[in-house]
Amino acid sequence: MKEQIFKPYEQSQMMLLLHNLKKLIPPSHLAKVVDKIIEPIGIELLIRQFKCEGKNAFHPKMPVKGIVYAYIQLVFLSR
Q: Residue 32 is inside which H or E element, if any?
């Protein structure tokens, strides 16, 4: 069984028009707090559940951070 290869996941990557998106977010913003909490969590069990079929998937931490941030903001839909 081949290993799952995720789409590139580099939070400090350069964008077309912006130099660094992280610099636009204030240090105490809730998004950075969620990032600092979720990033060190080991998700090896979650990664093992991915199937190696089709296109490369997004790294699992990306949607997890989005869902946690949305729940904190009292948005409970995650389509």
A: helix 30-38
pTM (2 d.p.): 0.65
Instruction: Report the distance separating Cα 22 and Cα 18, nearest Å.
Output: 10
Question: Which pairs count as long-range contacts for 55-59, CB under 8 Å and 24+ apart, including other chains?
Answer: 56/4, 56/5, 56/6, 56/7, 57/4, 57/6, 57/7, 58/6, 58/7, 58/9, 59/6, 59/7, 59/9
Beta bridge partners of 57: 6
Higher pLDDT pick, 79 / 58: 58
CA angle 47, 64, 8 (to 5 degrees): 60
> What amino acid is encoded at 56 in this protein?
N
Q: Is the pLDDT of residue 27 over 90?
A: no
In the chain, what percentage of residues exceed pLDDT 70? 72
